[in-house]
Specification:
Helices cover 84% and strands 0% of the residues. With 115 residues, the chain is mostly helical. The longest helix has 29 residues.
Amino acid sequence: MERLNECRKAKLEADRKAKQIVELQEMGTPSSEINKLWQMLLQERTRWLKQFMEIDRIFGKMSDANGMLVLRYRYIWGKMWSEVQQRLGYERAHINRIHKRALKEFEQIAEKGTK
């Protein structure tokens, strides 16, 4: 689950930086300051993309499509639980059960890949 959480954090941080850049541009902030943020954003996006590619490889081996979608929405795209629930059309308790099973399968596949 650690690698999923790291991917989620990288996505949310990159999104935060992108929003910050837009706000600073609208305020007329000097381009040198914005360029620094662009570089930081590029680093965050690169970090997220590397994590995404590793995780997506594992997703491709999962047998439960709903479980993969729950993990993808939550950890890759950074969605809130309410958004995951809305997108899949399931009650929260069912999303929790799917999530638990999916995490177990994800970790088993990831563990096999590192041996």
